User: Fold these one by one.
Assistant:
Number 1:
Amino acid sequence: MKNWPETLEIQPLAEIRQTVVTIPGSKSITNRALILSALANGPVTLRGALWSEDTQVMADALRKAGIELEVEQDPREDANRIFHLQGISDNHLQGGTLSHPVEIYVGNSGTSARFLMAFFCAAARGWYRLQGTPRMHERPQQELFDALRRLGYTVTSEKEGYLPALIGAEGAVSSRQPCSISQQSSSQYASALMLSAEKGGWDIQLPGAESPYIRMTRQIIETFPHHGGEFQIEPDASSGSYFYAANVWASRYPLEKPISVAHWPVSGWQPDQYFPEYLPLPKTVSREKDLGDSILTAIAIAPLAQAPVTFTDLGRLRVQESERVYAMKTELTRCGVKVEEKGDTLIVYPSRPHGAEIETYNDHRIAMAFSVLGLGVPGMVIKNPACVAKTFPTFFDKLNELRSDS
């Protein structure tokens, strides 16, 4: 395990040179593919899979539940692995008893917690208790709890709507009635039900327009080798956004963008695939319509824009790994940037940021976004840099690849 310092000062780049960076696999796709592999009708090999805190807790949970899962190093990328899983086909896993449930730890991984809750209901008999970090216990789960109850399963929690939670059923559950679930609070609730719907015999209905992450789930389900085979996981576009954003420090930006990412996704599955198209930043960027997690990257570099940039539809950011709207406003202000908050909108004004100690709130994306700012702003110190291990454990190594003496 890597020994991380308590703080890490980001040294500005002396120059921006032509660089092609490789990045690890997509966390969102990896965790979806792990669930589908466990449900498959044969052996599945996942290539290019991310190996980080979020995917490790998913793999550990599946193993603890009885899924055959082997992991080997991916020779092409340090933070990737090759997974070999044996799907359960028509079989069911055996959970614990009501008094002695199988204990499952999910860390602060929203995808793991939500996908596993639905998976255990569909694929197992018996009881499971899911718990995570203190922050995970603050993240809402009510809509998924309610949906699983409507499908016939039992969900009880110490605090209604939040983990820790006990889930399961005494025997087989027959769910004949359609179950409708909103995409508004979190698309992960709907994705969780979609991934396990066939195994559970569920009729899941999603009112309203299809969100980008729901579209990702549907397209992965459609292309996945459910009867066994291989599945290639593409690089994580959210993680790649930091390197495209580093181009703002190039002397001839935006005319020239010398930094790029190898094997950039073109499937359309990841909303952040389109991040390079938002450089230079437009006047308005929406979390719902334009970008996913990479909107934090955009907010971090917005002070360098030629005009104010308005970021809209940020409500979901408040209930993720940290209260991200508060975090971005607070830390940008700490750096001398003018930021206005109006409801779920942030307006970032052109400013000359200065260095500061950045509180990361144990949030990987806050740490990585402000590291990009530090590539051109002296004195940018990232507190708790270890938090990047959640999705990108080699991030600072990759950042150093941008240096001319690396």
Number 2:
Amino acid sequence: MVNRLRRGLPRRSVLGGILVLERHMDSAYLSAFSALAGAMIGGVTTFLSSWTTQTAQIRSARLTEERSRRDDLYSKFLEETARLYSYAMSEDKINHDKLVNIFALRGRILLQSSPSTVEAADAIIKRLVSIYMKPNRTDEDLLRDLENTSDDLMVDFAKVCRAELRLLN
């Protein structure tokens, strides 16, 4: 029997009338398999950890870039709105050349922003065109408009933009 074990042959025994073949595994094999399994588990864990971290960093960078791009777009739209509001207060006729920039910015907003932001931008443009179509406004009219902030479309647009940018964080 000792010869069988040394050569790695199965040992025979009878257990409850059933012939049972037993093999004894060398402890060196068990150690080697354990080491390989541990290395594989460690490698997979390291890979998954790195992949998860890198994916989160890429997503964060993408969101930061998107937020910055939209912030610039909304700022340009507000600047153009202020410029056109000034022209609309002092001119009787619509100068279509001056409206080109705001329509281009509106198109970019339409591509990149939520429907509520697009609606707020459209409301500003409609308001500007209606101001253009009215007779020239006096300084008193301007002062009255500045005091009545409930009707300020730029404030409404800024609030909608702020809420959208907050969602990108």
Number 3:
Amino acid sequence: MNDYIWLLPPTHVSNSGDKLSLLDFNNLQIRTLAGPAEIGIDLLHAMDGERTEEEINGLDYASDLISVLEKYELIVRLQKPLSEILEGRIWASRQLAYYAQLTRRYPERCLEALADKRVAIIGLGGIGMQAAQALAGAGISGLILSDFDTVDASNLNRQFMLSTKDVGRLKVDVVREFLLDRHPHLEVDVHAINPFESPSDQWERGDLFLFCGESHLAGDANELITHKPVIQAGYIGKEGVVGPLRWVEKGTPCHSCATKQSTQYNEFYKSEVALRTSWNCSGSTINGLMGNILAEAATRVFMPWVGEALALNEAIYMDMKTLTMRRDIADREIECPHRVPAPSL
């Protein structure tokens, strides 16, 4: 009874004569409510996230209406007043409404779960930039970004943080400026280095690693990310991929060992000849999709209760030709001396 009651946004209400109707978008049905329409509208206005269930139940028909709306999953329960949850972070209002779609009970827990987390992103191409922006908007408190590349005009079809005036600048500098202009609450550390060649103590602050670079470069990353959870993302041709999720402390092989043993191209790349027109097939849409799916998968490492998270060793694949997705468990048999043995039963 002490929960604060919030009508699930964006619930649409229609008042036609004496009938009050709601659009139940969960089931794509129009629900007609019993009772006088005028009283119903007053009650719906009272469900603004600022009043407790006990306060609202003091109004006529309130208890019956709350029961009906909960049956239709249109009631959100908060532990604190909505205004208190959003105090000093009005930017999070729409994000909180999104989290309410995923969990009706205490969606503010999602913001709390992300508020002290830092995500390290290695590689600020189209996927890395999309993931960085999405994570900042989701409520992550800090990002650690690594990319030693400079902006090229060929990046502009997909790397939305860049503009023509940025050509020649370090990507990490441009991305940091963009993010801080948009998200002043964010802490952003940048490193214009190859983290596998010059690891920094700053990386230890990362709670999760997102690897958005060439996968074959991660073979020597042992000291950097053996004990951290890692999600990889990228694409080959027309197929995008997010995953697998590697988490040594939960029994998976580390990202580095998995890369060494699952990539058959390591020797090939050591003697690769660069052809003049062998461009990366990096489309704008595949980068946007994979970057945002990666960010969503990353948040669920910290708040798995909102929905189906990536399973250990699992990856999501997107076929851009057919616009179909599938999930699969990758690389089940990998030797890794860093793996933490599963507890015996």
Number 4:
Amino acid sequence: MRAVILCLFAGLLAGCATGTRVNTASQPTVQPPTTVAPVETTRFEIPGPVGPISQPGEVVEPMPGGVVDWSAKTVRARGTGVLDPGATNVAQARVMAERAAVVVAQRNLLEIIKGVRVDSDTRVQNFVTDYDVVYSRVDGVVKGARQPGPAKYDSLAGTVEVELEVAIYGEQSLADALAPVLGGGGEVQTSISPQVRRFLEQYSGLLLDGGAAGVKPAMFPKIYDESGNLLLDTRDYAAYLGQPGQSAFQFISDLDRVLARPEFAKVPLVLKVKKVTGLLGADIVLDAGDADKLEWLKDGFKYLVGAGRFLLKVLL
């Protein structure tokens, strides 16, 4: 009897084991969760504006009766008026002499403006002569010229000197007066191409060293490769450069001082100008290797010039 009971008990245990067996072959294999490492991304920001790099008077082209200050982007002219030695009212005589000085300064300013290089083949004079609308607009800019300081009275010489100035770019400027014939009012690309982005990530700006080549400053120079292919016509951006808040070319003469500035701790790309071209010597020619580095220039020029990071070294 005891043997029978043990057999029955063993059978029950075997049946329970058989009934609770799990068929693992029919169940999917559960994998442990995979941890994905976060992808590190660097946020790209367009370089901020650096403001004026060169000091007023650094790149100056002397002209009869005044100067073209390319570093300050202004045209300045002086005029002198003579007091009437027989006047009984000295104060009134000074006022009359100052008015005469303003007229002379305006006349000198107009002549200086006519001699400003627009590009390597054209001076303002060409547009003033060929287009009545330009003549009228230039005349209006001259008559609205700003007087940056008070008149200088020389009591010994009996004269009064006045200085007037006009901006080269911006509102009420020389470029504004030339707007009807400059063009450049088309759409300017607003997206950043991968090439432009790579350049801005690597360099703090673009500096063309034209000192040894004898580059002459102009309002809108062109840039070519040595085969004569046009890399950039800055005149295409004339309307953009005239917008409020936008910078323009930075004409410099001291490269070392620029590179010492904190804004250029990440050094700019410095390229030597191989030679100049054009009647007035203002257009730039780069060798083939340097030109290849600037295939992106038409897309990226807006950002460089708007931030004041397009620099041109000249020697006058």
